[in-house]
Amino acid sequence: MSTTRRQFIKQSGATIFGASTLGAVDPETLLAQEMPKLEGRDRPTLVAIYLRGGADSLNTIVPYADPLYYRHRPNIAVRRDGNPREQVIPLNKQFGLHPNMASLMPLFKQGLVAPIINVGSPHPTRSHFDAQDFMERAAPGVRQITEGWLNRFLTMTRSNDDSNFRALSLQATLPRSLRGQHPVLAFPSLQIEHTIDTFEELYGCEEDQRLQKRGAIVESSAEAMRRKVTDAGASTIKLIHELRQIIAQTRSNANYPTSGFGQQMSDLAKLIKARRGLEVAALDYGGWDLHAFQGGSLGTMALKLGDISSTLTAFAEDLGPDLNRVLVMVMSEFGRTTLENGSEGTDHGHGGFMLLLGGQVNGSKIYGKWTGLELESLNDGRDMPVHTDFRQVFAEALSDLYGFDPFAQQFFPGYNHRAQPLGILHPHA
Question: Which of 121, 181, 219, 420 is most open to solvent, judged by the fewest CB atoms within 10 Å of its CB?
Answer without folding.
Answer: 420
